[in-house]
Amino acid sequence: MSSLRSRIWVLRLISSTAGVLVWLLLAMAAPWLAPHDPFLVVGEGLAAPSWHHPLGTDLIGRDLFSGVLFGARTSATIVVGVAAIVVVIAFIVGLVSGYLGGIIDDFLMRIAEIFQVVPRFFLAIVAIAYFGSGVDRLIVILGLTSWSGLARVIRAETLSVRESAFIEAAQLFGSGIFRTIFREILPNIAPTVAVYLTLLLSRVLLVEASLAFIGLSDPSSISWGYLAGSSQAYLRSAWWIAVFPGLAILMAALSLTSLGDAIGRRERK
Amino acid sequence: MSRYILRRLIQVVPTVFGVTLITFVLVHLAPGDPVEVLASGNGDAAYYQFMRAKYRLDESLLTQLWTYFANVLRGDFGTSYLTGESVVRMIMPRIGSTLLLAVSSIVVSTLVGLTFGTLAAWRVNRLLDRAVLRLSVFVAAAPSFWIAQVMLLVFALRLGIFPTDGRNSPGFEGTVLAMAIDTLWHLVLPMSVLAIQESSTVARLTRTGIVDQLGDDHIRLARAKGLGDLQVVLRHALRRSLTSVITVIGGRIGHVFSGAVVVELIFGWPGLGQLILSSSQSRDTPVLLGVLMLIAAAVVLMNLLTDLSYMIIDPRVRLK
User: Fold this and answer.
1) What is the ipTM of this complex?
2) Fewest Cβ atoms nearer than 10 Å: which of A245, B75, B87, B230?
3) How confident is the model at residue A115 (pLDDT cuts 50, 70, 90)?
């Protein structure tokens, strides 16, 4: 790798990490940064962006800028929660499947397949419609429907690592299953998992936004998708309600995918 | 070869069954009583009892599941809790609309994606290639409703080139051809929204497929014969990368159906997506189950079809 290329790579990694960090920081600091309570009526309805309301107001006069800031909070909570569930399930299923093989492997992979066939969007619609919507339930539903792809990646990586000479060597020296998994296999599959996970999370973010857009969001917390969905009836008179929340989603998803891309480039070199 | 096809056909059954099983159990585990939906909040205990018996809701989950599958095999998907209409009759008129939207966007996005992917590979690592890659990453990160609303704002509300919603102009009457043209005119915006996102996937796949071959012997031979970059890419590299583009069509159909829900809502397109939304909001279980089963079957069948077409393109698969 030439030094110029590696420098460009470092820059990319820093800028994409910064993007994700800004999003998480805004999410944490929303209550202090937002000029208004996003649920409170603070001005005229459907006011265009101005000095007082940088992104305008919605139908009943709530500040859209505050809404977008608090939306960062909702989306970040959901993405982090889903990531936790997906990582736990995918690692257990993937490692067990790849390491043990045989009937257990077959069985687990059939289950993973079923989850891959039904688009998770539809399962989520059904689950939310029947169980009611809430951030907690959204996290569980999106987590339970998103692990299968990563589990397959981990299984495949485990399989290929398991066959390699250094694992054989480690086992020859009396390394037990858990030691082999934690000391030898995990460090080797971590970069691939990181790349896949960031891409997956950007999709989860988009699915969550779409669910909120069609009216299936948590009524007690403001989300970007909800804001965009509320704009549909006033597109003619208030373009800003449609444009800005979507732009925020785009930036968040973009920072996640470019982070994955930056990690992936390192791997391919 | 026929044994392979048969084996793949048999594999379809448990997957569709599994999908229905998951939704069925999910729906029945949910809190709340479907009878309240049936009686729309009115009625006394006796009426509840009557409705429960009529829709067999008092039986065990296993019996209900068994009856449901037995009926489905006979082509009976039950009746809507809300309107009493047969589910099949509610779904039928909407299948065409959603299929038109889904198939047209898949065809268009495949053509557009192949074009852009080939152009990018032809100018690999140059400005055009970088521009195509950037654009595809950008498009993939944008929520579909955002693209839809921005297009609606620009092309329908500001410029007035395309209609804002519906499948036909209100009260439109005319010859079959005029009707088809009117539908096509309404189709452009919703179809484009779905196609834009899909074409980014295809473009990236095509590009990678071609670029990966550039160092191969058959490409070097073609170059040695004096063919230019574009000819090498078009005549020799593109053909092989077609296989990878075809294999993902099956997976993309599920993606397009999901996207269609949002797009149908925004553009008032009278398809299955709208039916899913309205029936889930009113907890109309039979309708919901019917649509989901149809979608699962469509996705699985498309996967099967792509596998089979793959087999025709690449003879090596037949031997396995």
Assistant:
1) 0.88
2) B75
3) confident
